[in-house]
Amino acid sequence: MHLLFSFVGGRGHFLPLVPIAQATQEKEHQVTFVCSAAMNDTVKKHGFEVITMGKANTSKPQQQALLPLDREREDNDLREKFARVGARKKAEAILPII
Fold first, then answer.
1. Comparing 20-24, 47-51, 89-93, which segment has the lowest mean pLDDT?
2. Mean pLDDT over all residues of the chain?
3. Predicted model pTM
4. Do 50 and 35 form a contact (C-beta atoms < 8 A)?
5. How far apart are CA 53 and CA 71, in angstroms?
6. How many CB atoms sit inside 10 A of residue 62's CB?
7. For residue range 34-57, what is the model confidence (pLDDT) as tens digits?
8. Stretch 19-47: mean pLDDT, rounded?
9. Residue 30: which of 55, 50, 16 has the closest Cα?
10. What is the b/e burial string over 1-29, where b = at least 16 CB atoms within 10 angstroms of the residue's CB?
11. Residue 59 in this model has a pLDDT that exceeds 70
12. Backbone dihedral region for residue 31 (phi beyond 0: left; psi -120 to 50: alpha; all else: beta)
């Protein structure tokens, strides 16, 4: 079986998938990740095949201090940025790959 993994975001979104993807490989299934160009090297270093989505971003991300905990903001970010907007955008881009 060939499984396609994807995530919206960076390392913090990728790393929790690693044990699942590794266990899948150990069962002799093929694993491929679909991710942004910025995550290609990280995914490859973990031993997975990669399909790149989007264009490479050559600008260095700016580090920012963590924001104070705000449950309402966090819920809104999860709901709107990841579950609604991010997931929909990613799903539309992945359909031709599937």
1. 89-93
2. 88
3. 0.76
4. yes
5. 31
6. 5
7. 998 889 999 999 999 999 987 766
8. 95
9. 50
10. eeeebbbbeeeeebeebbeebeebeeeee
11. no
12. beta
> For residue 17, which phi and psi values (nearest 5 degrees)?
-85, -20
| Cβ atoms 53, 93 nearer than 8 A | yes
d(CA 25, CA 98): 19
Please report the domains of the chain, with CATH numbers, ordered by start residue.
Answer: 1-56+85-98 (3.40.50)
Residue from 35, 20, 28 nearest 1 by CA: 28
Token pair listed for 2 = 């060939």
Q: Give the span between the Cα atoms of 63 and 81, in whole angstroms.
A: 19
Which pair of tokens denotes residue 70?
């705000």
